[in-house]
Design a protein that fits this description.
alpha+beta, SH3 type barrels, Fumarylacetoacetate hydrolase, domain 2, 2 domains, eight-stranded mixed β-sheet, 26 strands, binds manganese (II) ion
């Protein structure tokens, strides 16, 4: 039975009562932890100050989600249940309504201090497309790809919140036809539409997290734009993987959607052939049915389906820790570019323009291959929620500024 909230929530809002994502907003009282409901933010620090919530009260009165994320799944569940009660019980309205702030009256901050950042490469369609474009004379998929979730360590310190401008990176690049490399602004600046998983509960060095323990460690889900300078990347990535072509900026959405809000979005896991090794198996394999949208200067150019990923979030976490590497609160791992089988489902402009050879049409007769200065890219996503509601993720947006 869908609980009814006394807060007015517009039809089609990303933030119905069944979502309740966490974020950090800056309003008249500085940086505070809040929860999105419709067009408002519920000031959670204010809820604690009014004595309306016991439990991890200190953790909810800080400027990041880290302490609350570290408090563990039983606390996450209790706080979510209490917030639902406060926003649905008419008798709470008098105490709680003064703690609602309009979202358009506040600015959103990075919701958590990012500990480590890992990016996977888990869409078979994406990996195949990139293989064909970067290595046209070789097998598109390298031999390890179907046996393990390939990934690399990104740069945690340059993860930025939605709305942060992206300065075009400079670097060393060499096209295949060039005799020698040159230095300058990237001319093949791109995006990658991805889904990110935020770790709450850490582990000790030497411990592993099995696929079934995923929900005891992962706090929630965000959207990620892994900005990528393809010319820098193509020259530098052999043999150790992406480096400066990725590390200049990674944008994330400001709202962390709790796993509990995505229970209805779970679908059967992907068919995997060959069968993965035991440590990557899940008793009940699952994927998440998130529908992404990529908007380029206001034109939706792609709708990548997250359910089409080959490796699942649980397998990624199991792989990330199988060597005993410890998890820290605030670790972020992203799925890798989400690309479906169809052309209009590709999650990067490298693929949409097929290496720059097939221009992408935007509104007003404009075409593009890679990003130009002043371009804005916005990612959105939605998932099925409880009782026919839609769980939205807000947006992650960024505008390209000229190189310095
Ligand atoms: Mn990526």
């Amino acid at each position: 039975m869908l609980p009814q909230t006394w807060v007015p929530v517009p039809e089609g809002s990303d933030f119905p009562i069944t979502n309740l994502p966490y974020g950090v907003f800056r309003g008249t009282n500085g940086r505070r932890i809040g929860v999105a409901i419709g067009e408002h933010v519920l000031d959670l620090a204010g809820v604690v100050e009014r004595g309306l919530l016991d439990g991890p009260s200190k953790a909810l009165r800080t400027a990041t989600l880290n302490d609350f994320m570290a408090s563990g799944r039983p606390q996450w569940t209790r706080v979510r249940e209490r917030i639902t009660e406060l926003l649905t019980d008419e008798s709470c309205r008098g105490n709680v309504e003064p703690l609602l702030v309009r979202q358009d009256a506040v600015s959103m901050c990075l919701p958590f201090d990012v500990a480590d950042y890992v990016d996977f490469y888990s869409s078979k369609h994406h990996a195949t497309n990139v293989g064909k474009i970067f290595r046209p004379d070789a097998e598109a998929l390298l031999p390890n790809w179907t046996h393990l979730p390939v990934g690399y360590h990104g740069r945690a310190g340059t993860v930025v919140v939605s709305g942060t401008d992206i300065v075009r990176p400079c670097g060393q690049r060499k096209a295949p036809a060039d005799e020698t490399p040159a230095y300058g602004p990237s001319t093949r600046l791109d995006i990658e539409a991805e889904v990110g998983f935020v770790v709450g509960v850490p582990t000790l060095l030497g411990e592993r997290v099995s696929t079934v323990d995923f929900a005891d460690h992962v706090f929630g889900v965000i959207l990620v734009n892994d900005w990528s300078a393809r010319d820098i990347q193509a020259w530098e990535y052999v043999p150790l993987g992406p480096f400066l072509g990725k590390s200049f900026a990674t944008s994330v959405s400001p709202w962390v959607v709790p796993l509990a809000a995505l229970a209805e979005a779970r679908v059967a896991g992907p068919r995997q052939d060959p069968a993965p090794l035991d440590y990557l198996l899940d008793a009940a394999p699952w994927a998440l049915d998130l529908a992404l949208a990529v908007e380029w200067n206001g034109t939706v150019v792609s709708r990548p389906p997250f359910a089409s990923m080959y490796w699942t979030p649980g397998q990624q976490l199991a792989h990330l820790t199988v060597n005993g590497a410890s998890l820290r609160t605030g670790d972020l791992y992203a799925s890798g570019t989400v690309s479906g089988s169809a052309k209009e489902e590709r999650g990067s402009f490298l693929e949409l323009s097929w290496g720059g050879t097939e221009p992408v049409a935007l509104a007003g007769g404009v075409t593009r291959t890679f990003l130009e200065d002043g371009d804005t890219v916005t990612l959105r996503a939605g998932a099925p929620g409880l009782d026919g509601t839609r769980i939205g993720f807000g947006e992650v947006t960024g505008t390209v500024l000229p190189a310095r």
